Amino acid sequence: MATFLDFENKIKSIQEDIISARVRHDEPAVKILEADLDKAVAKIFNHLTPFQTLQLARHADRPYALDYINLIMHDKYEIHGDRHFRDDAAILCYLGYIGDERVMVIGEQKGRGTKNKIIRNFGMPHPEGYRKALRAAKMAEKFNIPVLMLVDTPGAYPGVGAEERNQSEAIARNLLEFSQLNTQTVAVVIGEGGSGGALAISVADKFAMMRYSIFSVISPEGCSAILWSDPKKVKAATNAMKITSADLKELNLIDDIVDEPLIGAHRETQKAATAISEYFLKSLSSLREMSDEDRLELRYNKLTKIGAYSE
């Protein structure tokens, strides 16, 4: 059963009417209802609030990294383990093909259902997950294979074990190493981009967000708890933090917005996957027109401009 958010109830009602009309074989009614559906989708999704975008980024039906990997990759092989401690299931690494291009895909996976969520640690990687991601990226660099990173995490796991195994060092090491990685890299936020957990696989030549994704230094819940000691102010925090793709594009903190379907990736997953695949291939083509030196210099300049301001 599909899950509908409060502001999607009108869409739910029309879709149910379309199903009923099809059961009755009432094609004229179906056409009218489909036109009504298009109007409702445009009216609702063209005027989303930041909080509604946050809800979509966390939608229970929103595709996760593995969903996209299965849709856009073929002849793929999963890479396990960091060669230091263990394999972290919250980070996925797949070597395979997107179209005719050989590629390494690194993604954060939240998991569906209680059992799988626990296995994936709710998409919160341990340090060994980030070290696995770095191992895979270094392998890609060795064989001149481009890297696609799919970002989707509420944040890095803050547990005692993760801290004992040096979570902060693992994230910092990835920031350093990915900034210097000598192969083409593209990162796309597909859902939540939370704190250092997202940054650890976000440093890339091209950094984009899907239309209904978010990217922030802390969750709105955490922000409202710290600033106001009031969890009821989540909406106010979401508005103030500027965490949507449109906000971050306006602030020049991301390169592009991946144009997922207007109704959302959770309703049209195949179209969303195609959008990611096409964005990656287009970005890869433009990056290959540059020399390694120019590409690395452009990446360095982009990173060092973050936070720059003028009086």
Helical residues, percent? 40-55%
CATH superfamily of the largest domain: 2-enoyl-CoA Hydratase, Chain A, domain 1
Instruction: Tell me the count of domains.
Output: 2
Whole-number average pLDDT?
94
Based on the coordinates given, report the CATH architecture of the largest domain.
Alpha-Beta Complex
Alpha plus pi helix count: 14
What's the CATH topology label of the largest domain? 2-enoyl-CoA Hydratase, Chain A, domain 1
Q: Which overall shape is indicated by the principal axes computed on the Cα atoms?
A: globular
- Classified by CATH, the class of the largest domain is Alpha Beta
The number of distinct β-strands equals 8
- What's the Cα radius of gyration? 20 Å
How would a textbook summarize the main sheet?
Answer: 8 strands, mixed
Element pattern in H and E = HHHHEEEHHEHHEHEEHHHEHH
Please indicate the percent range of residues in DSSP E strands (runs of 2 or more): 15-25%
Low-confidence stretches: none
Overall SS class: alpha/beta
The separation of the N and C termini measures 53 Å
Fold topology:
Elements: H1 9-23, H2 27-45, H3 50-57, H4 65-72, E1 74-78, E2 91-98, E3 101-108, H5 113-119, H6 127-142, E4 147-153, H7 160-164, H8 167-180, E5 185-194, H9 195-199, E6 206-210, E7 214-216, H10 220-227, H11 234-241, H12 245-250, E8 256-258, H13 269-288, H14 292-305
Helix pairs in contact: 1-2, 6-8, 10-11
